């Protein structure tokens, strides 16, 4: 269970974005999505997927009709899609699973084809994806729906589902919002994996270290070589989960200096925040 301060920080970050969006008559989509994306830096392994889902539901539902909101996780080995923490009309629904190869499920189609689904008239448009109209396992019979696949390291790991009992309520930009929200979910999953691998058997803290550069791809080596020795030190400490203040104390410099180093790291790695930098360092094979 996460601490109240961590959960409140994330919830307030989303609420701030939602408030700014709602009070803007001439919507600057690029700016709104940038602000929303920046709140992803508030996500930590201490937040559960259910807590993230609850916070997202409360805010996204004020922007468009998210009568039913859910995140399905795809287990490739088991061949199952599992929904946990689904919310419908403000109420938590029972968890459930089904076969990812089920030919009668839109979620399965979304996972198999790695493609979004956009429907404003469910009763007519489901035929674009399935031979027969699917019967809900839990919840109400939808009249409109959005499905967005979630990817981690170029592999589909789940999907976001938004459905409603009203027809003709969705617009194309709602998919853009869900894609950005999907980044929250993917980062939560990635950070949870990093966090779980941070402890060896017996609860001993894992010692992260740099990988052999000869094993990296040419592109990965070029990006890594752009970092200074000090920036590499800072990045390695970021991976351990230490806040800037503690990193500054360890390196005998000011917190402002660490902030400058992190901004330089983000620029060179072409990321926007700590979370993205950590995930990309793992993806590029720099640290293990």
Could you please describe the fold and organization of this structure?
The chain is of the alpha+beta class and 288 residues long. It folds into two domains: 4-196, GAF domain (Beta-Lactamase, 2-Layer Sandwich); 206-283, Arc Repressor Mutant, subunit A. 45% of the residues lie in helices and 15% in strands. It contains eleven helices and eight strands. Strands 1, 2, 3, 4, 5, 6, 7 and 8 form an eight-stranded antiparallel β-sheet that branches. Helix 1 packs parallel to helix 3 and helix 3 (49-60) packs antiparallel against helix 6 (172-196). The two termini are 26 Å apart. The mean pLDDT is 82.
How does the SSE layout of this entry go?
Layout: H1 4-22, H2 29-38, H3 49-60, E1 68-75, E2 80-83, E3 87-88, E4 91-92, E5 96-99, H4 106-113, E6 117-119, H5 122-125, E7 144-152, E8 155-164, H6 172-196, H7 218-225, H8 229-239, H9 244-251, H10 255-269, H11 274-283
Antiparallel strand pairs: 1-2, 1-3, 1-8, 2-5, 3-4, 6-7, 7-8
Helix pairs in contact: 1-3, 3-6, 8-10, 9-10
């Amino acid at each position: 269970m996460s601490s109240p301060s961590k959960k409140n920080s994330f919830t307030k970050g989303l609420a701030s974005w939602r408030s700014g969006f709602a009070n803007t008559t001439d919507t600057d989509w690029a700016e709104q999505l940038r602000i929303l994306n920046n709140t992803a830096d508030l996500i930590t392994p201490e937040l559960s997927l259910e807590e993230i889902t609850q916070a997202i539901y409360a805010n996204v539902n004020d922007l468009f009709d998210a009568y039913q909101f859910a995140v399905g996780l795809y287990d490739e080995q088991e061949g199952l899609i599992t929904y946990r923490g689904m919310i419908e009309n403000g109420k938590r629904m029972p968890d459930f699973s089904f076969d990812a190869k089920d030919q009668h499920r839109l979620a399965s189609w979304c996972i198999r084809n790695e493609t979004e689904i956009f429907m404003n008239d469910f009763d007519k448009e489901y035929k674009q994806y399935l031979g027969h109209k699917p019967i809900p396992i839990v919840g109400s019979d939808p009249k409109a729906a959005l499905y967005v696949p979630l990817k981690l390291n170029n592999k589909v790991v789940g999907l976001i589902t938004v459905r409603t009992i009203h027809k003709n309520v969705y617009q194309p930009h709602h998919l853009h919002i869900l894609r950005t929200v999907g980044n929250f979910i993917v980062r939560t999953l990635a950070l949870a994996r990093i966090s779980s691998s941070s402890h060896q058997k017996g609860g001993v803290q894992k010692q992260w270290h740099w990988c052999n550069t000869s094993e990296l791809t040419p592109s990965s080596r070029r990006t890594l070589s752009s970092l200074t020795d000090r920036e590499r030190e800072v990045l390695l400490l970021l991976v351990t989960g230490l806040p800037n203040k503690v990193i500054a104390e360890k390196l005998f410099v000011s917190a402002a200096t660490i902030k400058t180093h992190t901004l330089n790291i983000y620029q060179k790695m072409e990321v926007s925040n700590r979370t993205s930098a950590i995930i990309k360092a793992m993806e590029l094979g720099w640290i293990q």
